[in-house]
Amino acid sequence: MSENFTFRPKSSANQVKLVNQLERQFHTITQLLYTTNVPGALLDRQVLPYIADDVIFKDPWQEGGDKKLYRIGMKGFHNMFHFTFDTFQLNVKLNDDGTTGRCIVDGIMNLQQFSWIYTYPLRSIFVYEFRLLNTDNIDDPKFEIFRHEEMWSFADMIDGIPGIGWILNKIRSIILMIPLLRQNVCSLFSRSAIFRLSNISVCHLSSTKRNTISRPRSVFDRLPKSLHPYVRLSRLDKPTGSWVIFLPGAWSIALAETSLNTLSLFGLFGIGTILMRGAGCTINDLWDREYDRRVERTKGRPLASRQLSTRQGIIWLVTQLSLGFLVLIQLNLPTIGIGVLSLIPVFIYPLMKRYTYWPQFFLGVTLNWGTLMGFTAATGQIYPAVIFPLYFASICWTLHYDTIYAHQDKQDDLLIGVKSTALLFGKDSKLWLRAFSVGMLTHLITVGLSVDQTWPYYLGLVGVGCHLWRQIENVNLHDDQSCWKTFVSNRTTGLMILACIFVGNLFK
After folding, report:
1. Widest distance between CA atoms in the chain
2. Tens digits of per-residue pLDDT, 413-432?
3. Can you spell out the DSSP letters for 295-363?
4. Among 64, 206, 313, 390, which is least packed by CB within 10 angstroms?
5. What percent of the chain has pLDDT over 70?
6. How many CA atoms lie within 13 Å of 30's alpha carbon, on the beta-carbon side?
7. DSSP state of 212
8. Topology of domain 14-159, per CATH?
9. Superfamily, domain 224-506
10. Is the pLDDT at 229 greater than 60, yes or no?
11. What digits encode the pLDDT tens for the residues 150-169?
């Protein structure tokens, strides 16, 4: 118990005695909920009996839920974060009817996870609305919480981070100056000079000695030839890219234990994946058409080879975005909001290879947006303890497979000055691939703990780990054909994880 905390003074009145006892119980519940790393079994035993089946939970991000989702959210919070909580003031007040009441807790949450870097006292207010079930024993009253609300400012916590907080304050200052910058905004997107690397060694092969990667014929080859450039611009003839975008969103939906009524989400996400992947590829080719003409693998792309004009590319982009928006508005409001925000990284990512050796990281941020949307679309609420670890796992997966993919272009990238993790890691690439695989599996385990997954899920992840290990051991990073085949095999990786989730759900 916090040394600053004191209970209300007692009196001989039974109601005051009841209120005092309720305050003691709410203090215990609050400490268990917000001093994290409490074992899940202890939460089940000492907190959940006080939670109503129809409980509504609200914080600055979301509102809604029931007892099952409340349990998932709280356990995920304990698995993901490390906080301590100091109670400054706690007050219980019974309503006039004598059967319901409200408890207000005022205190400070202290983030301990990164205390060696920084800590920030997050002012927090919690409101519990409850109904009394039995007060025959005033020393142990029975009640249930039917509404639990948190009030805090996550932005305040971020502002407290050294460096990042300063940057955010500067960004806010710049935003306020936008009217003054309008005339110069185009210069922000101009291409800077790109310099050749001088300190990275790669095995350079002449274009005549490179392996030609054959792609299987597809159903799109039967379309009128006038449509072929649009098919290739959207990469509809190369479905692996769509799979690695769709699957993280499918994991997210499956983790919500969707019923038959919500299985339509898989269809909507599948259609949305094809449309938004096509839009993203179109944006990428619009930005990179000059670079693509200088790279052996990409010089035949429709915009680079001038099979389509820039104007035609823009019209096709608008068409795909419009269709994608029609799919998006079929989802609930929180998911629509997250989906609209995805356009920011979609437009920014193609520029990253000009300025950083980590474009694969930004690709992961972009491609895996579906992990933030799937669980939210299925539950109608945002659960950070579930979607963020899943998002980080998916980013690690993208870093794994796209670093392998980037090794196909490393010679051309080196010559024209485009950056990638393949060039950055060089001969240490396989060491980094192992690290990304470990990061992916670690976050998937965290997700499993957050949603109370069962043993088949974790056993399946062992198989996923073996599959990733085999990829890393067998891939020849100096052979284009080997890199392509390994990249394609990541569709199997994603399907294995989806199977782990489905089977794990069956054992719940």
Report:
1. 96
2. 777 778 899 999 999 999 99
3. STTTTTSTTTTTSS-HHHHHHHHHHHHHHHHHHHTTS-HHHHHHHHHTHHHHHHHHHHHHH-S-HHHHH
4. 206
5. 81
6. 31
7. P
8. Nuclear Transport Factor 2; Chain: A, (3.10.450)
9. UbiA prenyltransferase (1.10.357.140)
10. yes
11. 988 656 666 655 555 556 56
